[in-house]
């Protein structure tokens, strides 16, 4: 499969320019990238897998594309991984770490075409327990996802994609790099996703996580500079409703939100030409089917209120966890639907809202099923609250009580409890509010609730 047809087709075309790909201030043409990748492919051809030290650099792109050309599964290693994490990834995947890439080296790769169902990437993802697991993604799954997103976002070769996300996750690497190389759009990776860098890039399509968009919204001049962009896309974690509204006020457009996992890639998104609602991740992309399932195994109504586990069927799904058949089997329902572990609500018009992880964000209090995300968004609507995370803590009478951790100034616990009770049903109000200096987050900006102080 030609996974990156725009790269191979335009590398020698007259439209190929010296700044077709820019990473952290360094630019190259598609022809240069393809040549450097060809040299990598010549070095690694026939290897069972190759690990890449995935810094924000042209060398990383050449290494990943080289693996795809050679049909060798690529295992991106986070550049900030500690020795234990790095050793686990290398040992578990059986991949050899690729020596530093010389971007000036060139080769014309003429290897055999790789099968559609061959593994393209092995991305390591952490769950709530145990060591990170290797998620095997096929070339077919990646192609299906990128084509579905290109259709949803009207993403074409005329776009200029801008982002500064890590090149070892789905968001930054698959969407943000391979997506541009498949579609043929110009790519500007800013190195770091700062408001100033985003404002200076002059893109038509921007990718960011909520932390990035929150910082952009706090820099009005940078935000206004994005007013000429075509789409601002947010993912990897829920975008707080206040940030959504601030971006709309400053840029004149509503951000696009989308939903996915490493195991499923991106399966749901609002559309370039469709309605965009705060808190909604939109509709399934082409080729994706979704359903909600309750704890009793029965289907949950799409009534805009009932909560169930989101399950999907799609060509974008992973091939399994590397070397873990039992974990792979456990991630599917008996009838073959993938169990995301995320709780969601689906509106009658099919718009999807994610309300949290089943393991940490579904709170069962006094007979009610409450999504933590809904309470978090209510708290963030208070002008004094900068960050919020909500969990369920054991309670002798209610089963669980709602506990909120907030970063805020000049507001009391009682005021926040009353504020939420005035915005949502009274049973969704926090019973306790804990004030902290900051929320623990991972590299993609997702709050890490397991690292919060005990409730």
Structural shape: globular
The major β-sheet equals:
9 strands, mixed
Helix content: 25-40%
| CATH architecture assignment name of the largest domain | 3-Layer(aba) Sandwich
What is the number of independent domains? 2
Describe the protein's architecture and organization.
The chain is of the alpha/beta class and 455 residues long. The chain folds into 2 domains: 5-257, Rossmann fold, CATH 3.40.50; 362-451, ANL, C-terminal domain (GMP Synthetase, Chain A, domain 3), CATH 3.30.300. It contains 13 helices and 24 strands. It has a 9-stranded mixed sheet with strand order 2-1-9-8-10-11-12-13-14. Strands 15-16-18-19 form a 4-stranded antiparallel sheet. Helix 2 (30-44) crosses helix 3 (58-70), helix 5 (139-153) packs across helix 6 (170-183) and helix 8 (210-217) packs across helix 10. The radius of gyration is 22 Å and the shape is globular.
Write the layout of secondary structure elements.
Layout lengths: L4 H6 L10 E3 L2 E3 L1 H15 L5 E4 L4 H13 L3 E4 L5 H11 L2 E2 L21 E7 L7 E6 H15 L6 E4 L6 H14 L2 E4 L5 H7 L3 E4 L1 H8 L2 H6 L5 E4 L6 H11 L4 E6 L3 E5 L13 E2 L3 E6 L14 E7 L5 E2 L3 H6 L7 E9 L5 E6 L4 E4 L2 E4 H9 L4 E11 L3 E10 L4 H11 L8 E4 L20
Helix pairs in contact: 2-3, 5-6, 8-10
Task: Name its key features.
455 residues; alpha/beta; Rossmann fold; GMP Synthetase, Chain A, domain 3; 2 domains; nine-stranded mixed sheet; four-stranded antiparallel sheet; 27% strand
Task: Please give a quick description of this structure.
By secondary structure, this protein is of the alpha/beta class. Helix content is 29%, strand content 27%.
């Amino acid at each position: 499969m030609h996974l990156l047809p725009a790269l191979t087709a335009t590398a020698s075309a007259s439209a190929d320019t010296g700044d077709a790909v820019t990473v952290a201030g360094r630019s190259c043409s598609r022809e240069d990238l393809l040549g450097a990748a060809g040299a990598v492919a010549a070095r690694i051809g026939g290897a069972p897998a190759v690990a890449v030290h995935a810094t924000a650099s042209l060398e990383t792109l050449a290494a990943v594309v080289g693996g795809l050309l050679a049909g060798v599964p690529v295992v991106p290693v986070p550049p900030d991984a500690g020795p234990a994490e790095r050793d686990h990834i290398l040992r578990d995947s059986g991949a050899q770490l690729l020596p530093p890439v010389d971007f000036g080296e060139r080769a014309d790769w003429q290897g055999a075409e790789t099968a559609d169902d061959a593994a393209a990437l092995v991305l390591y993802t952490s769950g709530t327990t145990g060591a990170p697991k290797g998620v095997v993604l096929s070339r077919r799954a990646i192609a299906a996802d990128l084509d579905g997103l290109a259709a949803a976002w009207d993403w074409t070769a005329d776009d200029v994609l801008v982002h500064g996300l890590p090149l070892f996750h789905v968001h930054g690497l698959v969407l943000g790099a391979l997506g541009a190389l498949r579609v043929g759009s110009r790519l500007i990776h800013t190195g770091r996703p700062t408001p100033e860098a985003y404002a200076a890039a002059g893109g038509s399509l921007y990718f960011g996580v909520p932390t990035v968009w929150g910082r952009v919204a706090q820099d009005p001049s940078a935000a206004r500079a994005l007013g000429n962009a075509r789409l601002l896309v947010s993912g990897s974690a829920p975008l707080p409703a206040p940030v959504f509204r601030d971006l709309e006020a400053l840029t004149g457009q509503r951000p696009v939100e989308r939903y996915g996992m490493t195991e499923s890639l991106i399966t749901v998104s609002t559309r370039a030409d469709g309605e965009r609602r705060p808190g909604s991740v939109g509709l399934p992309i082409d080729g994706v089917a979704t359903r909600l399932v309750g704890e009793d195994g029965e289907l949950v109504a799409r009534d805009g209120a009932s909560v169930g586990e989101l399950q999907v069927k799609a060509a974008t799904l992973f091939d399994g966890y590397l070397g873990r058949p039992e974990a792979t089997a456990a991630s599917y329902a008996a009838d073959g639907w993938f169990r995301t572990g995320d709780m969601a609500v689906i509106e009658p018009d099919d718009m999807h809202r994610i309300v949290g992880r089943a393991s940490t964000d579904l709170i069962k209090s006094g007979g009610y099923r409450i999504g933590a995300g809904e309470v978090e968004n209510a708290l963030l609507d208070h002008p004094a609250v900068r960050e919020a995370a909500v969990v369920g803590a054991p309670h002798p009478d209610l089963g669980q009580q709602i506990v909120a951790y907030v970063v805020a100034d000049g507001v009391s616990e009682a005021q926040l409890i009353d504020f939420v009770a005035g915005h949502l049903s009274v049973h969704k109000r926090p019973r306790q509010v804990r004030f902290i200096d900051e929320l623990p987050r991972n590299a993609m900006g997702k709050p890490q609730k397991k690292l919060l102080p005990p409730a």
